[in-house]
User: Fold this.
Amino acid sequence: MEAIEVKDLVKRYRGNGFAAVDHISFNVESGEIFALLGPNGAGKTTTIKMLTTLLKSTSGTAKVAGFDVGKDKDSVRKSIGIVFQEPSLDWRLTGRENLDFHARIYGIGRKAREDRIEEVLKLVELEDKADVAVDKYSGGMKRRLELARCFIHYPKVLFLDEPTLGLDTHTRRRIWDYIREMNASEGVTIVLTTHHMEEADYLCARVGIMDRGKIIALDTLKNLKDLIGSDLVSLEMNTGSYNVEVFKKLDFVNDFRKYDDFVTLKMERGDLRIPAIMEVAKLAGIEIKSVNLRKPSLEDVFLHFTGRRIRD
Ligand SMILES: Nc1ncnc2c1ncn2[C@@H]1O[C@H](COP(=O)(O)OP(=O)(O)OP(=O)(O)O)[C@@H](O)[C@H]1O
Ligand SMILES: [Mg+2]
Assistant:
């Protein structure tokens, strides 16, 4: 079953000459963890806001948990949980009070509420901080509480807009594990947005890469990476005009791409080929500043589709 169906969705903000979301279409299956990945201003938050009924679309349709986001807002709202990009806890209240308030809004009875609050506190390992005011929480603890909160009313679909923004690597890993656990334990469908390739890589089977309002790639990570190739060797060059076409002539190079100050060569067993590549560079008078050998990442996928690096 599809948890989310988006068709030709468009959002133009008043006064902007462009569409922040520009005819996007995608589906997410029930139980999937799906990521919208893209740089600042790509349109990720705008998409999430339309799917969570907080923002009216300009045109197109979207269904969440089977309900139309324009026509059946209440049903959509009852089916979803959200973590916003900007923190939205009440800082004067304790963790437990924040959760309790949220559970009351969803009409969960007292006993069920108490049990569920214990359960979600345990999930994000905040039991011992439950009765401390949120303004005494660290950034990571606040994020964990927000995750607990969005999960409290047994939603079918969770929307997490940049769930690990501004957190250190260690805390991010923990958040990732909670997200996986929520997905595994109750089968909740999760749509998250992120700037981080590793985050999508760790959590998702499928991603949509957004850029300037459009989805430029939509597939499993495996397929997207296969498209890019096995080993990638990037050569960063000192400023100058060089005849980089010489690399194309190497018979082991399967693909060649040129960017501003570097080239990327696709090949098998790149580790064995670097000496030959350096030799060719030397003969052609190309000054190499750095050499990098790697397996393709989502960064390469982004580069492949847009010609730009993700953090422009
Ligand atoms: N309320 C608004 N009014 C006008 N333009 C807006 C508004 N909100 C967002 N935009 C514009 O829409 C585009 C998409 O913004 P959006 O916040 O959806 O991007 P994003 O992918 O979430 O970026 P980020 O990674 O920085 O969170 C941007 O060009 C932004 O300036
Ligand atoms: Mg955003």
Summary: The chain has two domains: 2-220, 230-295. The first helix runs from residue 44 to 51. The two ends are 37 Å apart (CA to CA).
